[in-house]
Amino acid sequence: MSRLIVVSNRTPGKTVAAGGLAVALRKALSRQEGFWFGWSGKLTENPNAEARFEDIDGLSLATIDLTRDDHHAYYAGFSNSILWPSFHLRLDLATIDSTWYEGYRRVNQQFARALLPLLEPDDVIWVHDYHLIPLASELRLMGARNRIGFYLHIPFPTADALYAIPHHLDLMRDLSRYDLVGMQAKRDVAAFTEFAEHQSPSSLSGDPLRSVDFSRTEVAAFPIGSDPDAFARMAVSSAANKMIKRMERVLNGQKLILGVDRLDYSKGLPQRVEAYEKLLANDARFRRQVHMLQVAPPSRDTIKEYQETSDTLDAMCGRVMGRFAEPDWSPLTYVKRAYGQPSLAGLYRLGRVGLVTPLRDGMNLVAHEYVGSQDPNDPGVLVLSRFAGAAEIFEDAILVNPFDTDETAEALRMALDMPLDERKHRWQTLMASAQKHNVDDWSRSFLERLSPAEQQRTSTRDILYLASVA
Questions:
Q1: Cα(148)–Cα(150) distance, rounded to whole angstroms?
Q2: How far apart, in whole angstroms, are the C-alpha atoms of residue 152 and residue 388?
Q3: What are residue 221's DSSP bridge partners?
Q4: Going by DSSP bridges, is the β-strand pair 59-66/52-56 parallel, antiparallel, or unpaired?
Q5: Helix or strand holding residue 421 (H, E)
Q6: What are the 10-residue block averages of pLDDT along the chain, 470 residues in total?
Q7: Catalytic residue status for 153
Q8: Do the Cβ atoms of 64 and 36 come closer than 8 Å?
Q9: Euclidean distance between CA atoms 332 and 442, whole angstroms
Q10: Is 368 a catalytic residue?
Q11: What is the Cα–Cα distance from 362 to 360, expressed in whole angstroms?
Q12: Beta strand pairing status for 59-66 and 124-128?
């Protein structure tokens, strides 16, 4: 049986989140053997050319170090100051620096050089996320003929946004060197297909006379999920109950509106607070009856745009407090630190409203975790952005346009006033969808499609088809 080689920017640490991506990939590696390859997290002036192996709780990890300059250009630079905002359709926040692409490419070459000697001919390689788009190209140039799959965990950009990215044609050609490219949602496959079918000539990036050949690359949607049953168990654990009791003492009968996000400009946090402010302004009966809790641990806080988002959110929360707070009532709590998953499961279970309103998101697993944590006898209501990948599978959430804060405010009112029977019906449908699209089935379906056996079946079908039409 072929080995599985998982490749990502960072390898998992010793503490693994229940129901997370690392858990699913650990299971896949245990079924197939293999190892997980990535950056060690260490910066050094003279990184070794060879990967170092270590074992963490039975998981084999192979890691390399990077130089500080290369890591900055590759990670903070091209990956997170160009690709991340562009893929999230925030071209106004993209910063263009020509030296970053060189560092991005150099790190992908370093990954390939260190990985290649570790490969066996029948290994299956699964590459994760936008940091490593060129990896298949680099491996192919060095002679690798393995089956290589790529999974994009963030949205794929529209054609116009893609054209704005420096070296976009090179990046698309890199994607064409994978055997299978997985996306979060059907809308991402559609955007990819639009580019593939209607490529326009490049100006300065790449060869203007050559189009990208995607004929050997399969592109499909594989919606990622969590483990809803694991969150259901965690939500009634002692750690979750401890958090619930703490919050119930503070809430004193108020209904909780809950947001849990990384502090990122793609999450729509200022718009979310503005919508809550409008709810309180439009309907005075909710004052003293509801409380909003926003958990938002810092993310990439060395990047200017993230600092600006943090400052804006601070100011908006202060405005809502100043406008509505009373000596004996606070309308919201804003927490800038992370909590363990059992504690989060307790918060999810207590939340009458799960407010998940990113401006654009690949999937958004908070929506999955919130659904999995609910009390079947008294479930909360998921208010979900139409621009999250999760909206394609969670049709019974209240779907909103997060840019329209009046619409989101009205959705909050609907959720808070929703009768129990309707809440139960919506939750049952959402839970069924979360169970159908769980993270284990996601990894299994991708790897089955990527496997050499699938390649053989596809080749046989092609031969039979050609024979039939000959």
A1: 7
A2: 14
A3: 183
A4: antiparallel
A5: helix 420-436
A6: 92 63 80 93 93 92 97 96 96 92 98 98 97 98 97 95 93 97 97 83 48 91 95 97 96 97 94 98 96 90 80 95 96 94 97 98 96 98 98 98 98 98 98 96 96 60 40
A7: yes
A8: no
A9: 36
A10: no
A11: 7
A12: unpaired
SS3 breakdown of the chain: % helix, strand, coil, rounded to 5?
50, 15, 35
Q: Check if 4-225+440-466 and 228-437 are the same fold.
A: yes
- The catalytically annotated residue of 69, 72, 129, 153 is 153
Concatenated DSSP letters of 70-136: HHIIIIIIIIIIIIHHHHTT-GGG----HHHHHHHHHHHHHHHHHHGGG--TT-EEEEESGGGTTHH
Beta-carbon contacts of residue 309 (< 8 Å; ≥ 6 apart): 263, 264, 265, 269, 270
Catalytic residue among 361, 368, 396, 437: 361
Q: Into which CATH architecture does domain 228-437 fall? A: 3-Layer(aba) Sandwich (3.40)
Question: Of 206, 135, 211, nearest to 170 (Cα)?
Answer: 206
Count other C-beta atoms under 10 Å from residue 379's C-beta.
23
4-225+440-466 CATH fold: Rossmann fold (3.40.50)
Give the domain ranges of the chain. Answer: 4-225+440-466, 228-437
Q: What is the pTM of this model?
A: 0.91
Residues 6+ apart with CB under 8 A from 438: 225, 226, 227, 228, 229
Distances (CA, A) of 434 to 131, 151, 438, 439: 28, 20, 6, 9
- Pick from 190, 128, 178, 175: nearest CA to 153: 128
In 332-404, which ranges are continuous DSSP H helix? 341-350, 365-372
| 361 secondary structure, DSSP code | B
Determine if residue 69 is left, alpha or beta; phi over 0 gives left, psi from -120 to 50 gives alpha, anything else beta.
alpha
Q: How high is the pLDDT of residue 48?
A: 87
